[in-house]
């Protein structure tokens, strides 16, 4: 596989880490005051960083408000993602290649599986500010759904109406193969380290369809599966995405400097003159 170091198509890792905090802080704001649960912040724990896990949620009280003994408490590991695009897709990372470059050449490379397969989180909370929604994804059930409906033997290469190569099946002609690069290593400082992630773009409309379908089937007693649950942040928590994003002044420069058209929707949120990134 060949890699080209073209800064126009890549993201700075430090900025990406700051973008990630948008969804993480929103998660804490929404769920941090739950009367039944407590949240352990694991973001600075190196062990859980390697496991692609941000938080642990523990149920410490039952529905009546009575304490649950520690030995009987249920807990869930959570990973939070933030996607500032308005492409209408959720980016599902399947592989990450770490490249160490020397000039314009690759000095060394190593590969690990992406969060879809590698995270130890039970739930992925995927915040999508363009529609002000959080998609709570049960990771293992989501893998099963992807493989059953979109990545089976029927999958074949084809091209859409705009000439883009896509992975399509008989029923779902989508799942664009996507990739993105992040410069700067884990701390955003080492500019010779690049993370090259690849994965699938899964249309949001199909996640919503899946969530509605499973809700209907649960009501009919067919199963209790919740592969995807969709939360409308404005309607359910009275929080608008513009209120959330305005807290992060570095986004102003990020939006105006990027060439990616899918970020343009945020321009109206910020002043027309970009501020210095922080």
Keywords summarizing the entry:
278 residues, alpha+beta, 8 helices, globular
Structure class: alpha+beta
- Share of helical residues: 25-40%
The helix tally amounts to 8
Helix and strand succession? EHEHEEEEHEEHEEEEHEHHH
Uncertain residue segments: 1-10, 152-161, 166-177, 274-278
The total count of strands amounts to 13
The coarse overall form would be globular
Characterize the main sheet.
Answer: 6 strands, mixed
Distance linking N and C termini: 35 Å
Written account of the structure:
With 278 residues, the chain is of the alpha+beta class. The protein is globular and about 60 Å long. The chain contains 8 helices and 13 strands. Residues 1-10, 152-161, 166-177 and 274-278 have low confidence and may be disordered.
Give a quick precis of the structure.
This protein is an alpha+beta fold and 278 residues long. It has helices spanning 13-31, 46-49, 115-118, 139-149, 204-219, 233-237, 241-245, 250-257; strands at residues 10-12, 37-41, 55-59, 75-82, 89-102, 105-113, 123-128, 133-138, 156-159, 165-168, 176-184, 190-203, 228-232.
């Amino acid at each position: 596989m060949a890699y080209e170091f073209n800064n126009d198509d890549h993201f700075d890792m430090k900025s990406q880490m700051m973008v990630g905090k948008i969804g993480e802080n929103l998660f804490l704001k929404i769920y941090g005051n739950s009367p039944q649960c407590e949240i352990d912040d694991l973001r600075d724990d190196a062990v859980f960083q390697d496991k692609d896990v941000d938080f642990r949620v523990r149920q410490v009280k039952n529905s009546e408000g009575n304490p649950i003994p520690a030995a009987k408490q249920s807990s869930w590991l959570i990973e939070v993602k933030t996607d500032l695009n308005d492409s209408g897709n959720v980016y599902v990372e399947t592989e990450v290649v770490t490249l160490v470059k020397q000039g314009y050449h690759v000095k060394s490379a190593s590969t690990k599986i992406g969060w879809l397969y590698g995270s130890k989180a039970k739930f992925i909370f995927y915040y999508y500010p363009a529609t002000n929604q959080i998609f709570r994804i049960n990771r293992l059930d989501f893998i099963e759904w992807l493989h059953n409906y979109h990545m089976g033997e029927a999958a074949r290469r084809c091209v859409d109406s705009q000439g883009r190569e896509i992975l399509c099946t008989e029923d779902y002609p989508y799942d664009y193969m996507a990739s993105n690069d992040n410069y700067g290593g884990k701390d955003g400082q080492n500019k010779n380290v690049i993370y090259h992630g690849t994965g699938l773009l899964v249309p949001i409309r199909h996640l919503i369809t899946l969530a509605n379908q499973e809700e209907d089937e649960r009501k009919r007693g067919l199963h209790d599966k919740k592969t995807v649950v969709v939360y409308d942040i404005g309607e359910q928590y009275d929080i608008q995405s513009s209120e959330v994003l305005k807290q992060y002044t570095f986004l102003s420069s990020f939006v105006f400097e990027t060439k990616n058209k899918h970020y343009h929707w945020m321009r109206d949120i910020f002043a027309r003159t970009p501020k210095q990134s922080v």
